[in-house]
Amino acid sequence: MMSYLTLFLTFFKIGAFTFGGGYAMLPLIQAEVLANNWLTENEIINFIAVSESTPGPFAVNIATYIGSQVGEIGFLGAFCATLGVVLPSFLIILIIARCYEKFKSSKVVKALMSGLKPAVIGLIATALLSMAKTVFFENAVSLSTLNQPMTYLSLGTVVVMSVLAFKKVHPVVIIFLSAIVGLLAGYLL
To answer: Which of 67, 49, 52 is nearest to 12 (CA)?
Structure first.
């Protein structure tokens, strides 16, 4: 039987020790969920897709979704996981707001924030590589990978991301076109 306290504390730890938002939390979420045997790696990837597709902050969405799936009482599991992931940020923001005027020009605080930026980028890159390995190379990399339709969809995704990075295309247009491609791929593949 799963303990709701364990669920809360796990997501509290994730929320407390991750800087940079939901994507920076992915490596910790993956590690903790797999360590507790709550989900498989493929289920985590699916939860990430669902969490990213729904409105709201990514970290809250994935915590709520995982909590609802692993708790015996879905609502209670969702509540515990969501409260756990949100509470540390809420408390930290409360403390920072109280002390902001005193420390806003501190060289130590500025240096700390400058040091955290590369660490956050590293965490996000780690999550990206881990997910890419699971999604694109589930069994292994081989020449048969080139014959898979998903390979071409993946290359298309990289092209779309490149266009977004270097051209001024409204994100709604990209979302709309991506939805159409996803629907077509779902029916054709």
So the answer is: 67
